[in-house]
Structure formats: C-alpha cells, structure tokens
Design brief:
single chain, Polyamine Oxidase, Chain A, domain 2, 34% helix, 486 residues, binds flavin-adenine dinucleotide, eight-stranded mixed beta sheet, 3 domains, 20% strand, globular, alpha/beta, FAD/NAD(P)-binding domain
Amino acid sequence: MSALTRRLFLGGAAATAAGVATPGSAAAGTSADVVVIGAGLAGLTAAREISRAGRSVVVLEARDRVGGRVLGRPLGTGDFTELGAEFIGPTQDRIAALAAELGVPTYRTYDTGDYIYYRNGQRSRYSSSGPLGPIPPDPTGAIEAGIAIQLLNQQAAEVPVDAPWRAENAEEWDSQTFHTWIQQHAQTDGGRFLLRLATRAIFSAEPRDLSLLYVLAYIAQAGNEDHPGDLTRLVSTTGGAQMYRFVGGSQRIPERLAAALGDRVRLGAPVRHISQEPGGVRVISDAGTVTAQRVVVAVPPPLAARISYDPALPAARDQLTQRFPMGSVIKVVATYRRPFWRADGLAGQAVSDTGPAQVTFDNTPHDGVPGALMGFIEADDARALDAADTARIRRETLRNFADYFGPQALDPTGFILSRWDNDIWSRGCPVAFAPPGLLLGYGPAIREPVGRIHWAGTETSTYWTGYMDGAVRSGHRAAREVLTAL
Ligand SMILES: Cc1cc2nc3c(=O)[nH]c(=O)nc-3n(C[C@H](O)[C@H](O)[C@H](O)COP(=O)(O)OP(=O)(O)OC[C@H]3O[C@@H](n4cnc5c(N)ncnc54)[C@H](O)[C@@H]3O)c2cc1C
C-alpha cells in the first residue's frame, strides 16, 4: 500500500469510527448557517453549541482525523496514550464539564513518591510535598525560584485577563523578554536554571522568545472567574494543571464531539480561501466550497495566517498573525511491562539539566499496564532534533530515562513520539506565544471579529489560554458571538 493510499485508508477508518464524513465526501456547493474551520476542541465545541441552538453548521478539518493538538495513540493493550494534550487540573472547569457530559471520566495522575532532580551529572531525590512543592531542592536556586514565583504572581495580578495590553505597566513589560526579567531577578545559576526550565516546560519556548507581559498574562489566565491565576498551579501536578488524566485518553473528547456532529464534520478539507460577499461568506477548501452566513476560524494564529482572505484582513489582524509563532516540542513515550520506578518509590517525574528529555512524567494508563514514561523535549532541544531520525531521539531519550530511573529504562517494550514542529497543521505546539511588542501593538485583534469572520482557538481564550480548557472556552464564546449575529 502506498503511503498516500494508506493515509487515506487510515483517515477513512478513523472517520468511519467517529461517524464523520470522509475525505472526498464533502459535496461541492454545500451551504449552512455557519462554517467552522478546524475540528480541534475549539471548533468542535463551537459547532456543537451552534447546532444545539438549531442552526446548521459544517466543520471543515484539514487533517484526516479530529482533535488537532489532542492526539491519542493505541498502546496495543486496548488503552491509549496521549501524544498531545493530556492533563487537566483545578479551575479548568469547562473541559472538566464537557468531559463529564460526554461520559469521559478522569483519574489522578500518578504522583506518589519522590521526584528526581538531575543536575551537573548528580541525581537526587526529593519530595514534592515539602514547603517548596515541585521546585527541586537546588542548594541556591530553590529559594530564589520560590521568591521569583511569588513576585511573578503579584505582577500577574495586575494584568487584566481579557486585555493584557491595558495593564498599567504594559509598555514596560511588553518591551522586554522574560529572559531579561530572569537575569534581573535571579542571581544564582540554580535560580536561573530553574526559571528557564519552568518556562520551557510551560511554553516549549526559551525565555528570550517571550514577552514578559505575555508570561504575566499567561499566569493571570491560569485560573478562573473565582480563582486568580497562579504560576504554581501551572507547574504543579497535585493541585495544579497536571493533576488529572482522562480514562481511555483525552482524544475520546473530540472523538465523541465529532461523532455527535456526524457528517457535519468533513475531514481532509484544508481551507485555502475565505471571501466575504454581500449576504454571506464563501469558504473554499480542497474538498469543496461551503457558503454560509458566518465563519468561525478555530485554528492557531500561524495557521489562520496561511488562509487567504478577500477582502484582505485589516492590517492589525494580519500583523498579529505574522508575529505569533508556535512553541517547539517533541513528546516521547516509552512503554515497559510494568511501571518499575514505582517499586523504587519514585513518581516518574524528573527535572534535569541534561537533555534532550529534561522533564518527565509517569504516563501509565489508568489500569496500570503497561508502564509508561513520558518525556518532553522542548524549545532549543526540540529545534535541535526536529530533523533528527527517530533512532537518535530514542537513544538519547532512553539514556535520560536511565539516568533518572535506572538501567531498566534502556529496555522498553515500545517507543513512540510526536514531532509537532514538523506537523504542517500545527506548525509547533503546545501554543502560539507572544514575543515583545505583540500584545501591546496588536492584542485587541486576537478576538475582534472581521465582518462575518469570528476567531476561536485556545490562543483567544481569557482563561487557560494554551490549554484544552481555553480551547473549549473559546468555542463557547465564538458560538455565542455567531448566534447573536445570525
Ligand atoms: C505535546 C502537547 C502537550 C500538551 N499538553 C497539554 C495538556 O497536558 N493539557 C492541556 O490542557 N493542553 C495541552 N496541550 C495544548 C492543547 O492541546 C491545546 O491547547 C488545544 O488542544 C488547542 O485546541 P484548539 O481547538 O484551539 O486548536 P487545535 O487543536 O490546533 O485545532 C485546530 C484544528 O484546525 C485544523 N486546521 C488548521 N488549519 C486548517 C485549515 N486551513 N483548514 C482546515 N483545518 C485546519 C487543524 O488540523 C486542527 O485540527 C498540549 C499540546 C501539545 C501539542
């Protein structure tokens, strides 16, 4: 079977399982009240709300699967692991409510036992239930990192979640990178190392890539209407954004959303062009043209920039998407007959200065079999390996795992990875981030509709931007906008 035939076949099989329309089945000349571009959580949530309100909707998805940055992979045991989004935590109420409604239960991420701190070739164990929580006991850096977190939380409290550009210090904060802030506020090697590591773990970008204002806004948004954002929540497992996982894998959520929408979801339909005409929009995809009253573009900003628009978008919106790059991440999962590290009293979490996998988690599924270790390769480390062959990434990652958890890690039963930077329908992950100048110069264009075009996607959310929860929130907001306008 040729690669192309196989891709189409697999796409068809996945689509049939989900009950959605296969590539090529989208009829040219379809019309609907609303067309949604992108079948990630944002687009599917918007489509669900629009359909529930009695309006007709068509979802056009470029890939031959739904879910976007949510991607499951079978483990060969009937269970799945995640190569994209995986965890949820307290205050992420919208994704939690959606999963509950769809009958996808959660379970606690394995977080029992010691974490590993691996620095300068030295391995030490520590408990994450100590006063510094998940911050490793670096002799000089831990205290400094703890103080920095408090200061960042204080500064973040001054940032309006729906308009960071209106913060009193917006100009000063959006004129510098987070690297500059770290250099000013951390004097020790250990402190700087820990803050850089946390930055990479959250954004899959280097501190030099990020606007300070954007980092503060991201912290402010890591909460909900009742609980202010908190950096500790971003980096913690118990009590934080990594606290729970979904039984059977997170991909069950978009799959169930798509199954309920049925043939309203069209796969293999990359959208190339949107024209706004008197009385409606015309959306041209590789699988046909759809006319509608309104369109919701639910794709990451760098992907929205690849669609052509007629008339051209306002300069502010176009320049926003020119400046909004994705992070760089490779996610790896090694499987073992059993989670052997648990017997040693280890939680499977490591924080390390030795790449490529500097942050790890116990990724064992709900029923405990097989054992699975997950590693993130991020920012500069991911960029360095984007073109490397899988054998090299496997070799180097397993070496890391062995340094953290012992030589048994060198002998996995399976090894899988996802390279998000090389995926043309994501162009990197987990989120598009703002370099200096973006929020202040162009921020308001992120959600502002342009005529009949509305914008969704996790990047447009005011809470939990970058996360599944933000994607769901953005889908609700875009649906409300469209339903009001129809
Ligand atoms: C490795 C990794 C780990 C992550 N970990 C977590 C986590 O633990 N917890 C968490 O909450 N979040 C996590 N995230 C982030 C989370 O996946 C995203 O925030 C969320 O899934 C974004 O959803 P979305 O619908 O906004 O965008 P997407 O999922 O990107 O959906 C956009 C869709 O649009 C499609 N598309 C793009 N261009 C076009 C076009 N021209 N025409 C038609 N379709 C198009 C894409 O194929 C895609 O399906 C992680 C992401 C990655 C990659």
